[in-house]
From TrEMBL:
Pathway: Amino-acid biosynthesis; L-leucine biosynthesis; L-leucine from 3-methyl-2-oxobutanoate: step 2/4. GO terms for biological process: glucosinolate biosynthetic process. Its EC number is 4.2.1.33. This is 3-isopropylmalate dehydratase. The keyword Signal does not apply. Gene3D superfamilies: Aconitase, domain 4 (3.20.19.10). It comes from Genlisea aurea. GO terms for cellular component: chloroplast stroma.
Length: 248
């Protein structure tokens, strides 16, 4: 049955652009599979978080989410056209073959000054599971394809000094990558090819650079974490009962 349902994340800055504090909440309306959507009961200011319809269990809160692998380092103001050029926006991510193809073009718009290719010629996936960036990552035109392309390429998380709001919103909406914010300027602390681990827990988020032996604190992502872990807004809404699952 076709869905008559819309969902979005609204992010409102409450301070200056750099390291903004964001009030975030879902806007859900309509029906899904002929059933009404349950409204959210709480909206709050979580810094870099999302107001959720249901709280996690104690066991889920205590769990640690970790990503490990080589990192790829970029600088400031990496815009969405560098992440995925407009000519590839005709690809439809819901089609598996086009999703894979979209991933093969991730970060293909970077200038030639980046001598190490993010994806080797002829490869469908990147060997870099974590992208480390400077200020204002994901700026430019709004396109959901940007985080989708990164996720399809094999990236699990982006760790940036700050984000364009639209990229952060689309990352949460699609559930493709974790948009994490660093306290230090990691794009000057790490180098492409360094082996790193990102650990996320209720009270302590950090990036460990195993190549240099240094450890860095990451800012909390708040309740956006469960939304991304679920696979995005629609998956999270089904998981928490905000919309009903399709009948078997």
């Amino acid at each position: 049955m076709a869905a008559a349902f819309s969902a979005s994340v609204v992010l409102k800055p409450s301070s200056v652009h750099r390291n903004p504090r964001l009030t975030a909440f879902f806007k859900l309306s309509g029906s899904y599979a002929g059933r009404s959507v349950k409204p959210l009961k709480t909206v709050g200011d979580f810094g870099f978080g999302i107001a959720c319809a249901a709280s996690n269990s104690a066991a889920e809160s205590a769990a640690v989410t970790a990503f490990h692998g080589d990192c790829y380092v970029v600088g400031d103001n990496i815009d969405t056209d560098q992440i995925i050029p407009a000519e590839y926006l005709t690809l439809v991510p819901s089609k598996p073959d086009e999703y894979e193809k979209l991933g093969s073009y991730a970060l293909i718009g970077l200038p030639s000054s980046y001598r190490t290719r993010f994806i080797e010629p002829g490869a469908a996936k990147t060997k870099y599971s974590i992208v480390i960036a400077g200020d204002n990552f994901g700026c430019g035109s709004s396109r959901e394809h940007a985080p989708v392309a990164l996720g399809a390429s094999g990236v699990a998380a982006v760790v940036a000094e700050s984000y364009a709001r639209i990229f952060f919103r689309n990352s949460v909406a699609t559930g493709e990558v974790y948009p994490l914010e660093s306290e230090a300027r990691l794009c000057e602390e790490c180098r492409t090819g360094d082996v790193v681990t990102v650990e996320l827990s209720e009270n302590d988020n950090k990036l460990i650079n195993h190549t240099t032996g240094k450890e860095y604190k990451l800012k909390p992502i708040g309740d956006a974490g469960p939304v991304i872990e679920a696979g995005g807004i629609f998956a999270y809404a089904r998981k928490t009962g905000m919309i009903s699952s399709r009948d078997a």
